[in-house]
Specification:
Layout (H helix, E strand, L loop, with lengths): L14 H23 L22
Amino acid sequence: MDTIVTHRYYRPASRITIFAYIFGIIAAILMLVWLLHYREGVDLDSYDPNKIFNVSIYY
């Protein structure tokens, strides 16, 4: 009977990767605070052009 040997390679994330994830989360939070506080919210379909949240999809 053959023995199955499995190897686990564990390499922790580098400091640059951790910094990039933290920076991205903070940037998303600050953008949401800016949109909700200074732009008075977001809306996908509104008569006020300042409240429309534009998502551009290019094909």
